Structures are given as structure tokens and as C-alpha cells.
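Troubleshooting log. The previous run stalled partway through. Resubmitting the same two chains, unchanged.
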Amino acid sequence: MTSPLTRRDFIRGTAAAVLGASAAFGRTAADGQTAAAPAAKTRVVLVRHPDALDAGSAFNEPVIRQMLDEAVAKLLDRSDPVEAFKGLVKPDDVVGIRTNVWSFLPTPAPVERAIKSRLMDAGVDEKNIGLDDHTVRTNPLFVKATALINVRPVRTHYLAGMSGCLKNYIMFAESQPAHHPDSCASLGSLFLLPQVKGKTRLNVLCALTPQFHGRGPHNFSRRYVWNYKGLIVGLDPVAVDAVGLRLITAKRRIELGPGQEVPPVPKHIGLADTKYGVGTADPAKIELVKLGWLDDVLI
Amino acid sequence: MRLARSLMVLFAPLMIVLAGGPVEKLSPQIPKQVFDWKASGPDRVFDRKTLYDYMDGGAEVYLAFDFREVFVRTYADAEENELALDIYDMGSPAEAFGIFSCDRQDPEAGIGQGSEYGPGLLRFWRGSHFVSITVSGNEDKAEQAVLALGKAVAPLLGPDGAPPEMVKLLPAEGLRAAKTAYFHDNVHLGNRYFVSSENVLDLDPRTECVFAEYAAASGDSGKLLLVRYPDAGRASAAAASFLKSVLPAADADGAARTGDKGWSMVTTRGAVLAAVFEATSKAFAARLAASITGPPK
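Second attempt completed without errors. Output:
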């Protein structure tokens, strides 16, 4: 009897990640202190709040700011969020916030504003903070950026399986279609580009309204978006995406059934670890810290 | 009755227009207003080179078919709810059926040669065209307008065309026709059914694939993938690759029981490969695989 690879086996396969691949993300750039995560594990913080969206699904900005503060403080084991951000950036950094403007599910503006506000609280001059998506390769601020913040929503993607923090850097590529073959397998290599390498200080995967399935011409339908009211935050984009994939998979299992639980075929997350060494995808090597609201947390 | 009168007023001029033609020539024939929704912004046309400008991240789904161009018109109501009408010239009826078939989940809407409607999304195909109408905003309010717009556009896209010849290879007994998908490469197979994280069947734009699901009256069930390659050599090589990667313990018939997921099997005849998944028995797997070895259906 043989057992061909199933979708679930495929996800388990990411557990073949290389130990220590995320070492570059285990140390904060600004103060040289080792980040709070135990050496053997990469910390990812999931924070949720029942009031992150109101009854009309509008974003609750004060709550979202509080969520980001709690997550980043916990990520770096600091009691004060400003001190935590000071652990991520230096006052003389030029910081590019790599956001996502996809019209159907953009990075929520309150999250962008919360990040920018805390960067300024940490001492970064406002004129040295930029926000961009499609023109990051040529945006003068991003060209001279010394630090990057990676922020975007989590959703499924027809080619890559999942769009997360790894895919968010595709606009740094000279050719975006060049990274589309083989289920976008090469996305991890984007973090090795000269404009990017070693600069990512924080990854924020917005799970306020994740999309667990895609349909239609733009691979988007509101039917497959739900109010999860969470943020997934980490220093390692691979680990953050691995947690995001667990969430999407769990939701799909409930809504679409076990046969469709894994979006096809999110191999780029495992390969970002095993081939490109830009983080860790192995669930056994990720410390997932959950803060706040736990109803229907799924993971 | 009121609805019927409204449609007559809005669409009466459409009943006499001629069908067919490049998508941009459809522009004057398509209604500028549907109930409360009025055309907003200029009509747009995107081709294979510019499709990325319209679809941020989704163009490959269409480029994996023989997509030629898409006509796009948006409509908005007073509350800024939007409809987006997309009319795709897919080059042939087979390709139009293909892009439609890869994403079917909603009930039939009775428009064109095949359609489906669910909240916020109407999809149908006719002739060489595939059409989608999507809603941004109040999906409930838009339902009547979406369906009316689809019914107005469908007559412009004739004549009807034939589905892919490959579909005729499928055994009829137990076939769940609404689940049948036609495509070319691994992108669409991966979305339809997970075979492997690698392209073990060597699919590319030159291969023709049909994926079908079966639920026979006997209680047997299974899934059948047929692939036509440019030549028999590639079909044989793909079968060998499949056996090595997916069914390493296959017997002399190319069949193996795959854990608790039933039987899988692979066979070839000439340039065509048949792969069976999740069959309830080896005999049923063989019956499905025989679709390429028996007489033409």
C-alpha cells in the first residue's frame, strides 16, 4: 500500500525547514539585543480583539492601535510599545512601510497609521518614513531605506496559494511575472535582493478580515472574507506566513471541507525556508503566542 | 410585469443587433444603464500584454488559456455600489468553456451555454466568450441588475460553440457534469485537485486536460483526469513520472490503493493519459481509465 502526498502532507512537508534559517530575524537591528524568542524557536504573536471591527465591519482604529502595541511589545518582550519599536528602528533610519493597495482587500489604513505613529514615537523623523506598494523599486525613499516594515492582509491566491508577507515583496522584483511560475516558488528570493536584504524589521500580517478562498476575475468574493479581528506579527516573514497559512487552512477545512483545506499550492513558504534560508516555516520551530480574544481562534 | 417592461425599455435596441466580433465592437450594443446602475468611467479593453494592468496578481489564470482580450465596463448606483462587466474573448469555444469550468460552485443561472450565479458573482460562457459580472457593495440589491445585464449580453455573443472534444472521452455513467473542468497547465490542476506540489504530469500550455468527478448509481465514485499531450512520448514519460512520484507501489496495471482515499491508477494510449483518483475499487478505477482505451464515446 502506498500513500501519495496529500494536501495535508504537503503542509506537514514544510516542517523540513532548516533550523536556524531565521537567525537573521532573531536579532533586532537597532539595539543589537537578542529578541525575546527562545533561541530554538521563532516567535510569532497573534493578537485579536472582539472590537477591532464594529457592527458594520468598520475598523476600530483605537483598538487596532492597542492590538499592534500589545503584539510588538510581546514580540520583543518589552513592557512598553514605544520601547519595543525603539528596538526595531533607530532614529536615523529611513523606513519604508511596504503596504498593499490591492483594491479588494488593501492593508487597512488604521494599521498603516498605527505603524507610522509608533515609528515616529521611536524617534524616526516623519520625512524619513515612506509608504508604498507598486513603486517601491523606484521610490527614492525606498531606494535609500535602511529599514522596512512589511504589512499586508492575509488572503488566498490562485497561483501562490496564499498571499502574505513573502508575496508582499514581489514589487521589489525587476519582473513580477518572473516569480509566478511553479506556484510562485521563488518568492523567498525577494528577501535576498540588495534593496531588501537584512532590512525587514517587522512583519504584520493583517488578519482583521482574512480571505480564505478566491473566486471571480480578481480572485475575490466577499463571501469568502470573514471578520477574524486579528493581527499576526513577527520578525520572520516566513514564520508569520506559516502561521497565516495555518489560519487559512483551518478556515477552509470548516467552510470548504477537508478536501479543499489547503489552497493550492503554497510551496513558496516552505521553500523560503529550505531553499532561500530567509526564515523558518517549520511549525515545530515557531513559538506562537496568542494574545487577547480567543473565540473561534482556529489555530 | 414591471420588471419585464423595464427590461424592454432598457434592452429593446439590443434585440436587433448582430452577434459576434472583437470585444471592443460590443461596446455600443451593451446597455449603459441597468435598473439603478449607470455606466461609470470609460470602457476599457485589455489584451495579453496589458491584462496585468487590470488584474493585480490574477492574470495568469486567463493567460494559461488562449485569452485574447477583455472588455470591461463598470456601473455604479447612487450609493456607489458597483458592478463590473467583463467580457473575455477566449479565442475559441473550448477555451471559453475551459475558463468557465475551472471555477464552478454556484447554481445554474440559465444564461448563455453554461452559467452560475451566487451573491455578488455571475459567470457564464457562450461561443468564444466568457463573461463575469461582479458586485462591489450591496450584493442583494444588485442581484436583479446582475442577472438582467447577463441576459442582455448573452445574445450578443453568439453563435453557440462546442465544448472541447476531450470532454467526449469522459464516460457518461455517473458523471457529475457540473464538476467537469477543462484546462491546460498545472496552475489549474492545482486549484481543481491536488496531485503533487510538483508538476509531475508535465502539464503546459500545449497539453489539454479534462478533470471529472463520478458518483455512479452503484455507489462507486472516483475522479478522472485525462491529459492529451502533443505526442505519445510525452504521455508515456508523464505516466512514468506519475508512477514514480505519486504511485510508487503501483501494480502491473498501474494501480494502487492510496491509504484511506481509495484507488488510484494511471494508463496511457497514444498521446492520451488517464489518471484516476479516489476510486472506490480497483475495478471502478479501471472502468474510468478505460475511457481512453475503449471505443470512442
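Takeaways: The longest strand of chain B covers residues 37-47. Chain B has two domains: 3-157, 165-292.
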